[in-house]
Amino acid sequence: MKSLVVTAAAAVLLAAPALSFAQSAKSPVTRAQVLQELIDLESVGYNPARGEVNNYPDDIMAAQERLHEKRLAEQKAAQAAYGHTGEPVTESGAAAKPAL
After folding, report:
1. Alpha carbon distance 71, 79 (integer Å)
2. Per-residue pLDDT of the chain (100 residues; tens, 9 = 90+)
3. Which of 30, 37, 52, 92 is the most buried (most CB within 10 A)?
4. Exposure on the CB side of residue 4, measured as CA atoms within 13 A
5. From the centroid of its chain, how far is CA 94?
6. Cβ neighbours of residue 59 under 8 Å, at least 6 residues apart?
7. How many domains would you assign to the chain?
8. d(CA 35, CA 48)
9. Quick one: DSSP state of residue 26?
10. Measured between alpha carbons, how far is 60 from 42 in angstroms, rounded to an integer?
């Protein structure tokens, strides 16, 4: 009986790390995603070959900010392409006549 309890406890302890990895909520970034992000950053003027080691954080953060602004502008342009939504209006029936 004691060996059964020890075996069960050992099985639980060995299975715990494997189960903890299965609960990871964030998936790893793929090579295609990294490549697309680099292409997007280069589209706003970032050049990784041009930068200096000391300026790297400033260069990449400035490029990320420009990319964010570009994406916001694209979203606004896409929303404006359909025109202004305005206030909802319902019209039906005849025009109101002045009271006598």
Report:
1. 12
2. 677 766 766 665 666 666 566 555 678 899 999 999 999 999 999 988 876 777 778 888 999 999 999 999 999 888 877 766 667 777 777 777 887 7
3. 37
4. 1
5. 50
6. 46, 51
7. 1
8. 13
9. S
10. 10
* C-alpha span between 38 and 63 (Å, rounded): 10
Containing structural domain, residue 73:
28-80
Instruction: Please check whether residue 18 lies inside any domain of the structure.
Output: no
Question: Given its phi and psi angles, is residue 78 left (phi above 0), alpha (psi -120 to 50 degrees) or beta?
Answer: alpha
User: Measured in whole angstroms, how far is the alpha carbon of residue 98 from the centre of its chain?
Assistant: 57
How much is the pTM?
0.52
In a domain, 47, yes or no: yes
Q: Do the domain assignments include residue 87? A: no
Rounded Cα distance, 63 and 6, in Å? 58
State how far the Cα of 65 lies from the Cα of 71, in Å rounded to an integer: 10
In a domain, 59, yes or no: yes
